[in-house]
């Protein structure tokens, strides 16, 4: 049976461009694929015929030979066909070669085969730096110099990884794809290229300083600005200040995580500050004035009401922490802690005992509590 014209098989004219031939092949291959034509006994033969036509027409040299000699170009060693006797698909290697092209078209978008798989350069890793600051520094903000151990571009090869700054060469094994294909029966399996380890490039003479990586380990000093209002958990991103990319790739980012040190006077709750202030028993009972510190280094005078109890709070508006993104300052809360005197002298003890006899009606919380206790006991007896 005479072979059909390859152009007729693909449904294109003789003057069709390479793109037109590939599109036609893609369309025909999907249409005639045996898996999609289980009820058509001729589908496999037609599918092979389409692949044979595409194998001949996709290559400019083979196409020129076919245009001049027809099918005879691939028979008896004539012309530049380089195929097998009796046709261009005498073995699975040719079939795999042709099918890999359509495989790229059909699935390239999902695995980055259309150039995206060419990993000429790799982005550097992001780095994390934990920075502890004082509450005062968080209140005022600060500029600080930190030392970050990281990978930086190699000065010897200018980050290329090649001796003398030469450009890396396209990997001869995978042609720059970073992957190689192996035929397993009807399917084509992709694996990471063993020659370039997926990079897509090889270096003939690696740089003696970085051994072909294009970067070296080094400590780098960075001056950073910490804005006022930061708190534990605040994250600051410095774009491009992370690890240098591999073989000239873009650098990663540096993330600075803030942790506030404990303060001996103040505790923080968002933008608000809390300060526990001890007061003498007499000041709590009689009232008075109290001078307290503020986070800005100043002082504020607070009036203690007569009869204040432990735990009573007073607010100083605007004396808290600034907002990280503006919005004014929080407040500062003073919490009173009435202090019981210790190491009393005999005279002080005598005066307190006399005071206690005269103050039975001056302790409302005690009276209420013991009245409730008496009712509880009476109820238990009943």
TrEMBL record:
Domain CR-type residues, every copy: 141-219
Q: Where are the CXXCXGXG motif repeats?
A: 154-161, 171-178, 193-200, 207-214
Primary residence:
cytoplasm
Q: Does the keyword Metal-binding apply?
A: yes
* Residues the entry annotates as binding Zn(2+) 1: 154, 157, 207, 210
Q: Which UniProt keywords apply?
A: Chaperone, Cytoplasm, DNA replication, Metal-binding, Repeat, Stress response, Zinc, Zinc-finger
Query: What is the annotated localization of this protein?
Result: Cytoplasm
> What GO molecular function annotations does the UniProt record carry, in alphabetical order?
ATP binding; heat shock protein binding; unfolded protein binding; zinc ion binding
Q: Which cellular components does GO assign to this protein?
A: cytoplasm
Please give one Pfam family short name.
Answer: DnaJ_C
- Zn-finger segments (CR-type): 141-219
| J domain segment(s) | 5-70
Question: NCBIfam families per the record?
Answer: DnaJ_bact (TIGR02349), PRK10767.1 (NF008035)
Subunit:
Homodimer.
Q: Which HAMAP family match?
A: DnaJ
Query: What does its UniProt record remark on the domains?
Result: The J domain is necessary and sufficient to stimulate DnaK ATPase activity. Zinc center 1 plays an important role in the autonomous, DnaK-independent chaperone activity of DnaJ. Zinc center 2 is essential for interaction with DnaK and for DnaJ activity.
Explain the purpose of this protein: Participates actively in the response to hyperosmotic and heat shock by preventing the aggregation of stress-denatured proteins and by disaggregating proteins, also in an autonomous, DnaK-independent fashion. Unfolded proteins bind initially to DnaJ; upon interaction with the DnaJ-bound protein, DnaK hydrolyzes its bound ATP, resulting in the formation of a stable complex. GrpE releases ADP from DnaK; ATP binding to DnaK triggers the release of the substrate protein, thus completing the reaction cycle.
Record-given protein name: Chaperone protein DnaJ
Query: What are the top taxonomic ranks of the organism?
Result: Bacteria, Pseudomonadati, Pseudomonadota, Alphaproteobacteria, Rhodobacterales
